[in-house]
Design the sequence.
């Protein structure tokens, strides 16, 4: 039996910076499932063509292929019901979808405008060209414009974190009294930033920063021990 | 045994417009618990002084007094464990706190800037004076400034609903395959608007509007049958 995760990497194969792959890595660790992570680059579509699509994470678990972080989380929960739960009930599974949607619609674009140029600097030549072209098309502007004036923009970003902040003032984890997939969804965005950029996203006294530090320590420091910047 | 909910009302006692009270009313209905709702006005602090604070909802359940919508939801879940669950597990209880925080930090301010002047028109003279003074102090501007240009502002409001929209494209309820307290938290904001204002918050083809219609039908049309505007 083998378990392999195709995991987005930079020019340095140790640099693992996909927020979606981090959701999956933390979920696997939560369930106590060992996995071999294989570095994969944006332009290596051929290597994951067997999954029927061109994005990571792709999990190959004893021959079964699952892609898309949300689908992988549901699949892990169903396949390994005796392991610690990612959602802790049907309510958690439903509500995690909202947290996933907020992260995709609000948090990721916010982080993106602060760190995209730092990502670019971490890629090999072929990926650099692909990344610039695909993202400039998506954003409708140059990456330099997308990331302009980040010192001012980070203030707006921090305001947008208010729902997180209020929650983490009331309880230690987004999942409640213990971390679960809700935490992994949101943490992926911070680990994305940490893995490529020295830019400071959070004030030191922000409850979100204290939570991020707890997340970095989880599962024997899995995220903290991976190549990245001090935060 | 009696169960009484002090419920914010306008000059017309049938106009029940507190988003927080609506969270509680829907939660009580979810658990199949009958309740007598008592109309209460902003300036009747004396009538709920027994609760040790001055805001509604205040629930008096067989002599036990509980205030604050979140505290009431937790208390109902603990006190009536054999009734349908509001959170469906520990994960749901944890994650509902994030949805509660998003609603308080993003959704309520957004709705407020579209409907505050309509609320004012629903109040008796004493409450009108109280409401204007307290809200103008909170917002740091006149209510007319706070609500200026709502035709333009509603476009931003609709963009801010994107996390809801993405979620409701993927599943019928915020709670997942069935409604739960996550739905009641968010719905309170829409029922708040509906109960005082004819202003159109949503486009007809918005998945959020279809969900709102399902919410209005829940529990024998509890919310739809209460005094309000067509939406």
Sequence:
């Amino acid at each position: 039996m083998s378990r392999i995760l195709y995991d987005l990497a930079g020019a340095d194969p140790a640099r693992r910076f996909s927020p979606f792959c981090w959701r999956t890595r933390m979920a696997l660790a939560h369930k106590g499932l060992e996995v071999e992570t294989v570095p994969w680059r944006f332009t290596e579509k051929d290597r994951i063509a067997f999954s029927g699509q061109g994005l990571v994470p792709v999990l190959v678990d004893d021959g079964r292929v699952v892609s898309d972080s949300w689908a992988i989380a549901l699949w892990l929960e169903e396949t390994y019901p005796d392991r610690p739960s990612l959602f802790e009930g049907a309510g958690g599974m439903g509500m995690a979808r909202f947290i996933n949607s907020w992260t995709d619609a609000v948090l990721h674009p916010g982080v993106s405008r602060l760190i995209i140029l730092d990502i670019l600097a971490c890629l090999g030549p072929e990926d650099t060209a692909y990344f610039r072209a695909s993202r400039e098309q998506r954003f409708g502007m140059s990456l330099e414009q997308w990331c302009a004036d980040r010192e001012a923009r980070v203030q707006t970003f921090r305001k947008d974190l208010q729902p997180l902040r209020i929650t983490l003032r009331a309880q230690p984890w987004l999942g409640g009294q213990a971390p679960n997939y809700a935490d992994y969804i949101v943490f992926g965005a911070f680990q994305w930033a940490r893995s490529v950029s020295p830019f400071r996203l959070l004030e030191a006294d922000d409850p979100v920063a204290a939570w991020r530090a707890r997340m970095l320590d989880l599962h024997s420091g899995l995220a903290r021990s991976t190549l990245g910047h001090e935060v």
In short: Strands of chain A lie at 3-8, 36-40, 58-61, 64-67. The radius of gyration of chain A is 17 Å. Residues 90-120 of chain A form the longest helix (31 residues). The mean pLDDT of chain A is 97.
